[in-house]
Design goal:
Blueprint: H1 3-16, E1 18-21, H2 27-43, E2 57-60, H3 65-71, H4 74-82, E3 89-99, E4 106-109, E5 127-133, E6 144-146, H5 157-160, H6 167-170, E7 187-189, E8 196-200, E9 205-207, E10 216-224, H7 239-242
Antiparallel strand pairs: 1-8, 2-3, 3-10, 4-9, 5-8, 5-10, 6-7, 6-9
Length: 261
């Protein structure tokens, strides 16, 4: 990825809250990741709260050589440098997210859990998920869905969905028109095996159900950057961020507050 391409992808990420990068994984490594993911899935005990995610296996990369290679993948490091996002640090865990055949959709939600922190106003990304797709994924077998711009702009849906990753969301009614509805501003993100989708933690997103006969598997890693203004940022910095104390502590919450405009 050239610096110019990296700048365009970063601009999309800042504007829309996500970007799609094709062909990040090699065919050989893709096969290795599929085999390791299938091994983990076949040996996992199904949890009822996985109903809408399909699975959520947390792999400690210090104990799994294959997943550690993914966390350190050179092509990803190169594209993060090109996008000037190389100040992001992975948390060391890879999530195996796999929808089984017939698996239902994933509900609308966002994953930011520090809405009390003034950095919730950041016009640049602070926390990212990197999702590597192990199979071709489209509207049939459970592709990613986003509502662009909702990482920085409040819409009614923010107040209509359940708090994510809690029991009320894990066991929500599949007929709930807000949690599972076809939002008019939603965008599907079909991908090919080996592609990478980078998304903002604050972005409202979901996934379609898997109406195929095969697993739809992706591997996701969370990445966080320091609570500083990025070197590439030349636009205005929100006042509450400039006034934020470096040693301030904020109570965690997944419910958007006053800092979501």
């Amino acid at each position: 990825m050239t610096k110019e391409e990296g700048a365009r992808k970063r601009e999309q990420l800042v504007r829309d809250g996500y970007c799609h990068i094709e062909g990040v994984l090699t065919g050989e490594f893709l096969g290795e990741l599929r085999r390791e993911s299938d091994r983990l899935l076949d040996s996992a005990e199904y949890q009822p709260e996985w109903r809408y995610q399909g699975s959520d296996i947390h792999v400690n990369t210090r104990e799994n050589v294959v997943m550690r290679r993914l966390l350190d993948w050179p092509a990803t490091r190169a594209l993060m440098r090109a996008m000037k996002l190389d100040d992001f640090t992975p948390n060391g865990t890879i999530h195996v997210l796999s929808k089984p055949p017939g698996g239902p959709p994933l509900y609308w939600h966002q994953d930011w859990d520090t809405w009390n922190d003034p950095f919730s106003l950041a016009p640049w990304p602070q926390q990212l998920f990197l999702s590597y797709y192990l199979v071709d994924t489209d509207q049939i077998n459970g592709c990613f869905r986003v509502i662009p711009g909702t990482h920085r702009k409040r819409i009614p849906l923010h107040c209509q969905v359940e708090v994510p990753h809690q029991m009320t969301a894990h066991f929500a009614d599949e007929n709930d028109p807000h949690m599972f509805g076809d939002h008019p501003e939603a965008v599907d993100v079909p991908v090919r095996a080996g592609d990478l989708v980078i998304g903002e933690a604050r972005l409202l997103h979901s996934a379609r159900g898997n109406n195929s006969d095969w697993r739809r598997t992706l591997l996701l890693g969370w990445h966080m950057r320091p609570t500083t203004v990025p070197d590439y940022w030349s636009d205005e910095v929100p006042g509450p961020i400039l006034a934020r104390s470096e040693d301030a502590k904020y109570e965690n919450t997944r419910i958007p507050g006053a800092y979501l405009e």
